[in-house]
Amino acid sequence: MRAEIVVLAGDGIGPEVTESAVAVLQAVAAAYAHRFVMHPQLIGGAAIEAEGTPLPAATLAACKAADAVLLGAVGGPQWSDPRAKLRPEQGLLDLRSGLGLYANLRPVVPHPVALTASPIKAHLLTGVDLMVVRELTGGIYFGEKKRDANSASDVCTYSVAEIERVVRRAARLAQRRRGYLVSVDKANVLETSRLWREVTNQVVHDEFPEIRLEHQLVDAMAMHLIARPRDFDVIVTENMFGDILTDEAAMLAGSMGLLPSASLGEGTIGLYEPIHGSAPDIAGRGIANPFAAILSAALLLRHSLGLETEALAVERAVSDALYAGELPSDLAAGKPVHATRLITERISERLRAGQSAIGDLRD
Ligand code: IPM
Ligand code: MG
């Protein structure tokens, strides 16, 4: 198949990890006879420097016309002044909302090799397989913001329709997994959470009666995620709770550098990005962990292009790399550290070799 993919490298380690993801996608294209046409565009701090805005109109237009969007990371210390008018992160938020990508899927499956990198005891981590569905275009991130000399406010709003659509998406995922859905809110304090809970009950009761639904308060959930992560499966929550809980969940996997994400809406277009940030402290040194970006490319193959075999091949190649000890600095824990490009090259080789082996068998 032919696919048009917009590549938004962004800031910090963004360019390095997207280079890896693109190389792996091109290895997939070569091995499986696809054609992936890459369209680089500006976002974030890089776009502020070049165009004076974190999301240039040309970037949004290119993304709307594409089959999928691959993103590295945005942000950095040079744009972090609290009084700054232009923020790299705003470009990402406007892109998510401009493309209507309201459901952010963040799978958390600790890899056996990375268990030692996790600060959590290994016996709590075996068998953990979570899918966090974070609402991505509503809530406090997108409410009215105000500031005067003595006060500031951020408004948190959710409509029934916004809650319904993301809960439906999570419930459909739960149907295909363990039939168990946990919704996270703060219904003991927040009105938006009380609405969230009512609507979630209604959607699951009316449309997914076979699903076991449970509610957790976000503070308790933060604790349960560490104390008994294996007990959970699909977790659905609002925008800011999802942001915070998935950084916490990343520690189950051993490193932020291992967690990919897919942001989806109604159509097949999606935005695929690691959940980690731009890591300015290690940017440009060739040592960034490319696994989250590569795994995000696997999600792109699965969700936007419908290429499940290819997605699984990428995921297997990443797993093989971890088993082979091809580890970046954040996972090496005393073992030899592998550079970003070397890890990428090995994964690409595995993909090319794996597919030709299948070809040989068929001949
Ligand atoms: C994430 C990030 C973003 C968010 C930032 C960069 C705006 O933390 O994707 O989790 O808060 O959504
Ligand atoms: Mg975050």
CATH architecture classification name of the largest domain: 3-Layer(aba) Sandwich
Helix content: 40-55%
Query: How many beta-strand segments?
Result: 12
- How can the largest sheet be summarized? 10 strands, mixed
Number of domains: 2
Mean pLDDT comes to 96
CATH fold annotation of the largest domain: Isopropylmalate Dehydrogenase
Bound molecules: 3-isopropylmalic acid, magnesium ion
> In which order are the strands of the major sheet placed?
2-1-3-12-11-4-5-10-8-9
How far apart lie the N and C ends? 22 Å
Residue stretches low in confidence (pLDDT < 50, at least 5 long) are: none
Shape: globular
Question: Count of DSSP helices?
Answer: 13
Which percent range describes the beta-strand content? Answer: 15-25%
Secondary-structure-derived class? alpha/beta
Give me the CATH superfamily of the largest domain. Isopropylmalate Dehydrogenase
What is the CATH class of the largest domain? Alpha Beta
List the helices and strands in order.
EHEHHEHEHEEEHEHEHEHEEHHHH
Rg measurement, Å = 20 Å
Detail the topology: elements first, then pairings.
Layout: E1 2-10, H1 14-32, E2 35-41, H2 44-51, H3 57-65, E3 68-73, H4 88-98, E4 103-108, H5 122-125, E5 130-135, E6 145-147, E7 152-154, H6 160-176, E8 180-185, H7 191-207, E9 212-217, H8 218-227, E10 234-237, H9 239-250, E11 260-264, E12 270-274, H10 291-303, H11 308-323, H12 329-332, H13 340-362
Parallel strand pairs: 1-2, 1-3, 3-12, 5-10, 8-9, 8-10
Antiparallel strand pairs: 4-5, 4-11, 6-7, 11-12
Helix pairs in contact: 1-10, 1-13, 2-4, 6-7, 8-9, 10-11, 11-13
The chain binds 3-isopropylmalic acid and magnesium ion (MG).
3-isopropylmalic acid is lined by residues 74-75, 89, 92, 243, 275.
